Amino acid sequence: MNFVRTLTVALAMGLAALVAGAAPHQDGTPSVAGRTAVAGAELIDINHATLEELKTLPGVGDAYSLKIVKHRPYKNKTQLRSKGVLSAAAYKKIKDYIIAKQ
User: What is the pLDDT of residues 10-36, one digit of tens each?
Assistant: First the structure.
């Protein structure tokens, strides 16, 4: 993903969090809705993320977030494809923003 696209996604996700009224955690870190998945930032763990956390990923709404949770656990993030949870296009949009911790 090139720099301009990464920046555009980060800004869009941040704006969505502001519109949604995301409040920071007690320690001052951004809430889930305010988190952006940009290089060097925290990745979203598909084995432990809430539905709301999953919906912060590009192209992931109610249906995809429910499917991701339903098919847990994942040994690695590529199982989103091998288990038939996401289409190739949807996986391509989020693969750089996710991780599958055990």
Answer: 555 554 544 444 445 444 444 444 444
Phi, psi for 45 (deg, rounded to 5): -85, 115
- State how far the Cα of 9 lies from the Cα of 23, in Å rounded to an integer: 20
- Alpha helices in 1-102, H assignment, sequence order: 3-20, 51-54, 62-70, 79-82, 88-94
This prediction has a pTM of: 0.61
Q: Which of 79, 83, 95 is nearest to 44 (CA)?
A: 95
- What is the DSSP-derived secondary structure letter of residue 98? E
What homologous superfamily does CATH list for 41-102? Answer: Photosystem II 12 kDa extrinsic protein (1.10.150.320)
Query: Residue 84 — left, alpha, or beta (φ > 0 → left; ψ -120 to 50 → alpha)?
Result: left
CB neighbourhood size of 95 (10 A): 15
Give the model's pLDDT for residue 6: 57
| Angle at CA of residue 45, ends 40 and 8, nearest 5° | 45
Could you state, in order of their start, the residue ranges of all structural domains in the chain?
41-102
